[in-house]
Structure prediction request, 309 residues.
Amino acid sequence: MSAIKTILLVVIMMTAVVGHSLADLKVVTTISDLARIAEAVGGDDAQVSTLCPGPRDPHFLPAKPSLARKLAKADLLCYNGLELEIGWLPLLLNKARNPRIKPGSEGDMDCSGAIKTILDIPDGNVDRAMGDIHALGNPHYTLNPENAVLIAKEMAYRMGQLDPENKAAYKDRATVFAGEVASRLPGWYEQLSEARTKSIILYHSHWNYFTHWQHLKVVGEIENRPGITPSPRHVQSVIEKGRDLDGVMIVAAQWDHQDVAEDVAERIGTSLAVLPGYSGAQKGTDNYFDFIDRLCTRMAEAATAASKE
Ligand SMILES: [Zn+2]
Prediction:
């Protein structure tokens, strides 16, 4: 190879390397649903990674050094907020010492700020010392796809602030995401028409945004206070309530106490639907749309099963 060719090749390679690092906005999300939305908005202009993998319960995540290293490189941190990550994110941020994403900086995005209606805001005293984990209201808002659209729009705005060159591309992708959600909403709603005639008992109030969006009837929760192991007396009262109703479905996430949920279902005489808590929590739900599809399909199946019991 001639000297000129070698120099040209080196220049091309260097441009590629430098170009890549400049073009990619490094986005770190706390939960997988936010990662899927960030990927849809960021496209080729962002590198997205998540701290809590889909199959893990994000209320409780060990603050491992590898996660702090991810945060140390981030340009934008998108977190759920409403204290979902309170047990581990502050610790990790402390370890990461990254001024770009520190609270109040341009790279600090609390996604709950984009949500118009927060459910289950406690009206009385909340005792955090007792382990109450929804002290600021229910944090599981990504289970309503209409909220995912609000988050996508806000992410596009924030990504555009940090990377003005690609501002229009972020905005366009958020619009495409919103269009995809809008086109699927009627089908998702239609799928649960039978489920709307049933009563639902939840293990944890994880599903409230989903049931609220779908107008499903929740008649009880196995956990009497979010995050706290239910007392036998409360479990008994839920079972008695369930026995008095026709067509009851029990719904739990795969990280809930399955033995308790199964016992309640058995004693009521109905079946238990174990659903993925977030995108990627079960096989075949990596994509946000596949995740919502799975929730609708499994709830619809559970409703049909409840009719037969
Ligand atoms: Zn929760």
